[in-house]
Amino acid sequence: MFDTQLFKDNLNTSWLGHNFFYFEELGSTNTYAKSLNKADSLQGSLVLADKQSKGRGQYERNWESVPGENLTFSLILEPGSADRLTILTLAFSLAVADVCEVQLKSSAKLKWPNDILVEGKKIGGLLTEAIFNGSALERLIIGIGLNVNQKAFSSDLRDNATSLSILTKEDYSREKLLTAILTKAEFYYRLWLKKDIELIKSINKRLIGYGTWVKLDINGCEKEGEFKFLGINENGALVVLNKDLEVDTFSYEQIRIYPV
Ligand code: BTN
């Protein structure tokens, strides 16, 4: 079971994770975070469950995680405006990737839009959900799943999923890993607020395919030709160069990037 006291003793953030909701079992931490009333869902609130019975992933998929072995949690943010949210989600992915890398010999990469990969296999993923009041963004829920101590995956996932433990043959304190992630995430959140270009540069360096020729799938259709992937710009739009050396940007489309 997650040791909430050990977590609190190690937490050294200024605000992120201070308002903490822990559950042995929950449907989905994202769903719970969304259901909280305004008074409970303070900026930086953390919802963590040892077991999710209805863990949700991107594209309406399920998120599978062996109870008690991994990190499955959601953070509640009040970023004020709905601008540049892509960058904010990537900033949190970067925080997770940084913490993974400290434990690993291999690098942890970001796969557009929200996956974290090590040695070509998925170790974690993010599911960001925005709650609007009319046209105003009320709060943002960033749900994070990180495979930590899980030793095996179902046959569906086996070829494409990994965990810190599989990669290093070690076991990890989930409590300490989480405090490290929150420290990094709080730092990157500050850079995001300041519109610091260093954040964009750090994200781009970690994006799989950055600076290479790739194929694009846009809203479910493969786009003809090959494109040089130039990463994200300061607004969070995805930037590519086509073979005629024209620059295209994509902001709202569902995009997938494939190596050529
Ligand atoms: C993905 O890669 O598809 C995103 C996975 C996100 C999973 C996390 S686990 C905690 C939070 N609660 C959920 O139901 N989903 C996210």
What report would you give on this structure?
It is built from 6 helices and 13 strands. With 260 residues, the chain is α+β, with helices and mostly antiparallel strands. A 7-stranded mixed sheet has the order 1-2-3-7-6-5-4, sandwiched between helices. Strands 8, 9, 10, 11, 12 and 13 form a 6-stranded antiparallel sheet that branches. Helix 2 (29-35) links the parallel strand 1 and strand 2 (46-52). Helix 3 (85-103) runs antiparallel to helix 5 (174-193) and helix 3 (85-103) crosses helix 6. The radius of gyration is 18 Å and the shape is globular. It starts with a helix and ends with a strand. The model has no long low-confidence stretch (mean pLDDT 96). It binds biotin (BTN). Residues 28-30, 52, 55-58, 61, 63, 72-74, 114-115, 125-127, 143-145 line the site of biotin.
Short description:
The chain is α+β, with helices and mostly antiparallel strands. Helices cover 26% and strands 31% of the residues.
Structural descriptors:
260 residues, alpha+beta, seven-stranded mixed beta sheet, six-stranded antiparallel beta sheet, binds biotin
Summarize the topology.
Elements: H1 4-10, E1 20-26, H2 29-35, E2 46-52, E3 71-77, H3 85-103, E4 108-111, E5 115-118, E6 121-133, E7 136-146, H4 164-168, H5 174-193, H6 197-206, E8 213-218, E9 221-222, E10 227-232, E11 238-241, E12 247-250, E13 255-259
Parallel strand pairs: 1-2
Antiparallel strand pairs: 2-3, 3-7, 4-5, 5-6, 6-7, 8-9, 8-10, 8-13, 10-11, 11-12
Helix pairs in contact: 1-5, 3-5, 3-6
Bound molecules: biotin.
Residues 28-30, 52, 55-58, 61, 63, 72-74, 114-115, 125-127, 143-145 line the site of biotin.
